[in-house]
């Protein structure tokens, strides 16, 4: 495994045990406040021993609040232990169950098992979750192997796997809502309990995992040395790493099966322990679980106290606080630790050349996809091809939807190409850089803080959010000269904040969240003809601008020196192109949601088709993006009829596989 530059502790004195004890004490004080809200202090002892029959407050204290606190301690400790093992084995300070795709694999596996293999759930959810978690981390290793398992490429692969598997699981949940509706609460990472059974089930498993890690601790500690030094001391590296990873994956799967997806605790606990002075692995092995237990318990009990009975999943809150931590840690890793720098778009060799046949095939593919979307569909009687009167009756419904999807795909692909040219990074796109997520954040704020808006106002507001997020991501990545891993990890981390905000707002039950969910799911089924016509304006305007900025698009990827030498006004050109990309992303997000991967797939497929000159490449990417989004919308309309699967969700699943293939090639 490639070495990472680990963040050094602030002090030589190990204050991690004291810090963990202080956090747990704070959690206990919050618990006491919540208990006092239910019962007077003098009744606490009697409640634990002999609660009165029919006394709801006493039963809630004994069988709801206290088990919840105990489960939080167990899960926090387990996540802290799993994160410590992942980071030690992989020598990667960014590793934890959610960044490595373990939780997404567990979610996907549980959904599949619930729908098609319920016999796997007879003895509990642990086994099904473990299958998915193991498959996910093996996929992550396969994607990052060609980069030597460098720290950032490993985590980037994990986050891409998380996006893809998470979207696939969400698509299955939407199309089989009645069968898997219990998984919605579980997915959010809720610690709600109604008995002590979960605690009693977790305690022995956590004890076994801790004992196994302790027995392996000497061998794991020697992984701090380089491979030659560890081998000279007789450490069997392969078996040590496999055993350490096995303990961490099994523990993560068991916690996910018990309480759901609680991210970033496994990242925060070892990091805090290291900064508190736990230099040695043995010290972190003991103190990180202590700190993790305190962090999760204090977060959950504070939420219970502040919300006054409104259930807010702890998993959503830990992700909101954990994403900035991921960005900060990522910036502490020196560029030298990332492995070989990826090739930019101008350095890739594409042997194909553009021919008239390529142009004809591209145009024919777009027309074919549009024709299928307009003419072919499903009815209660089965598949149906509309002709004559049927076609005329369906056009008012299908045509606006197809037009909106096409314009959304066109704008995202064109925005992706502009961002790739600005950064010189072939893996950049509005979705992966968090630009679409910035638009989503502003839409959420608008829904809750401003009066109702029409689509035009929403698009303008979303464009402001997209531009602000794009500038933030570029500023945060300037230290690494906009390397692929730093750019993409920053964007994905910021995007996770949007998902956490949605989970939190959904838990509040506010009816305004329904509009936000429609916007951000990427569904086009409610688009009106007027809205579809409006979507054409920014798309056509951007296409008209491309010929006038073609020289910039050809020169900017060559770098600052080349741009200055060839007379390109670098600052002005970049800001103008960023504004265009932000407006396109904001308008497309209103139609297709913040995730789709079309902004990545369109430019790449255009290059692979042989379109290399800036203008031709931009127009080809736009047409391919339009075709991809129309196809995704048609699949979403028909794959689970009469249910509607949002086009953004379908294209995310397709795009995740495409992105994984790109990582494997690179």
TrEMBL record:
Transmembrane segments: 18-39, 65-86, 123-145, 152-175, 253-273, 285-306, 312-330, 360-379, 399-419, 431-450, 456-476, 488-507, 535-555, 575-597, 618-635, 641-664
SUPFAM superfamilies in alphabetical order: ABC transporter involved in vitamin B12 uptake, BtuC
Keywords from the named record: Cell membrane, Membrane, Transmembrane, Transmembrane helix, Transport
Similarity field: Belongs to the binding-protein-dependent transport system permease family. FecCD subfamily.
UniProt xrefs under CDD domains: TM_ABC_iron-siderophores_like
Subcellular location field: Cell membrane
Keyword Glycosyltransferase: no
Organism the protein comes from: Mesorhizobium robiniae
Entry keyword Zinc: no
Protein's name in the database: Iron complex transport system permease protein
Superkingdom in the source lineage: Bacteria
Pfam families xref list: FecCD (PF01032)
Membrane protein topology class: Multi-pass membrane protein
Chief location category: membrane
